[in-house]
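Page header: ASSEMBLY MODEL / two components / 727 residues total.
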Amino acid sequence: MARRRERGLALIVVLAVLTIITTICFALVGLMNTDMLHASIQHAVARSYFLAESGLEVARTQLTAAVDPRTFTTPARGVTTAYGGGHYTYWVDAGPAAGCGPGFKTLEALGEVPLLGRVISSRVRECGIAGTPHAIALFGVSRVEFRGAGSRIYLAPYGVGSPGNGASLGSFGEIRFADADVRLNALSEGGVETVSLRDVGRVPDYGLFGFAERPDYNPDPAVDATPWVLSIFGEIVKARPQLGEIANPCGTSYACLTAPYHTNDIEDAVTLRSTVQRATGSAGGLPHVYLQRIRKVELPLLSLNPAAFVTRAGGNDANASINRAAGLPRKTNSIYTPLEFYEVVGYLGTHNAERLRGTIYVTGTVQLVQDLDIGGSDGDVTLAVAGDLLITEDARLTDRHDLSTAVGRQTPAILVFGFGVPTARSTIVCHGQAVNGSGRLVLCGGLRQELTVDGLIYTADGMAIGPGASVDQIGAMYHGNRGTPNPSFISENAIVVLRFDPLALTVFGRGLSILSWQQLK
Amino acid sequence: MRPRRVDAGYAIVDVVMGLVLFGLVIVAIYQIFIPALAFSLHINGRLAAQQDVRLAVDRVARQLHETTLDFGRLRVYSTDAGCVGAYEGCIGFVTAHSACSGPFTLLNGAPDWQATIYIWRDTATDELRTRCNPATAFPATQWPPILAPYAVIGRQVVAASFTLLPEGSPQPTAIEMALEEQIATGPRKGLQSTFFNQTVFVPENR
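Prediction written out in full:
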């Protein structure tokens, strides 16, 4: 009886032990599951990020390969592709892809990875300009040269926020600082210096870059001024064409950078600034060339087709009334011979309220001897010239656009194409500039001379700015070379303020240049 | 009634014996489980440390991706630049997010730099700290800048370093972040007690 009543005691013990062991096991399994879940989420987050990056890369590729990258868009639902156990969706100027501003391309991509009934996602966005493979403010196919102690060149941003976004300078051939006292982005080095701008009047030059006060300089070229100004400037871009080579005096495959007493290629910004300083022969001299860094890149050669602008001018009847008033009653389009154009210029000189509109094409070389405001403040005029464009001493040319619109910012300002076959014999004009209809823009100089321009200045065979001239431009410059010894850009004792607007480069219609990247999620 | 009197006391002895045996069994089980539990705790510590490092990396990943390697906009501070003693693994870089966490600010499609973010390890507390300075978009040239107020983004961090890659290049293209975290449960013989995470970031903005 007693034994029978004791039955089950061991079972209780066993059950208790089993309960404890089971509890511990469940706890351990639970912990492991939690850790594995965390690790899986981390893995999914990383995968979704790289899927989004893949989507962005595909969007870039599609946009670059488009016939006209400027007008390329995706459907509002985006383009979705399954990849790597998840999928990505990208948009270009459609759906959620917006926010980069009028005229700029917005590329957005979403990477999504399913995990345990949920979706882990990452979202990234880029802003860019379509229609140009680079965002260089002043580019010369052959030599870009700065001469004279009186030279003041500013490659500034268009629109100033916090200090930064200075513009770059590049060439396929050579960038040459021919004199020791040439000043590039030298912001009030020795004392406050001012520049005159069409929209804000006379301002301290450091204001061009967003500084409220004059930077504090150290004469040692290896020591940056305070605040650290070098970081806000652009780069020197030593380029080489993707196809073929362009010879330079240094014998390097990329463009070379030279300065007085230093004809070999200069490799870095500090050496450049030291070289320029040593060349002044003054230990207390300041390094007058301020750039962030020097970079080597491969770029495509760009060019514009004059035929497209002939067509545009041929269809531009907005100037018919001015033509009639100027003594050209039968001319309804905007294609002019040089003599016809001079008639119009003469008329505009005596009728200040009237301005031209749209694309104007002149079939020969133009020599401006009087001031000309070609389109007022919003004419969005493109002046295209088949030969050379010469602006005689002290003459002023103004070609402003409506910069409140993307169209106004994208419209080219001055295009100098040159003749298909330039004349065999050159004429020497201004300060020794040789012209033969190859497509040169020459400002002869003079203290009164001003070129005020919005948009792109493009020349087939280079631009020369003579002593005393001032250039106030919002836009960009691209200067070619037609195998002549002419430099693509030369400025001698002139003041050039180029506020870089990347939208001015979209006219080339090729490629994509990315300006910013951000992670939205 | 008599038989019952004979059996009286058996039950309590049985219970006491049962409890003793149960105790012995429990102690035996506990002895068996001690290493298992210790190992489990260690594993949890390791996972926690690993998770901590991952979280710290995640917190700075987006900021580093969105910054720039432009000259003077990102600085890694060497011991010569003042990152020594109380500080280790010091870096300063710009952000286009207003006040570091607001909207990403654009100007003509390009980043409009708004503030400077500093990250460093405080050697006294083994904390990885971050500081946002919305007053300037230029990292200081010398360490330490003003570092208060700050936020803690990692604990038990026993080593931290930032390196620009390629090393020694005047034009770096990436940043390597290396963190070493000690597990909270302390070292255990024969088992790894620190965690090392090395990640390379490529800033996407120029």
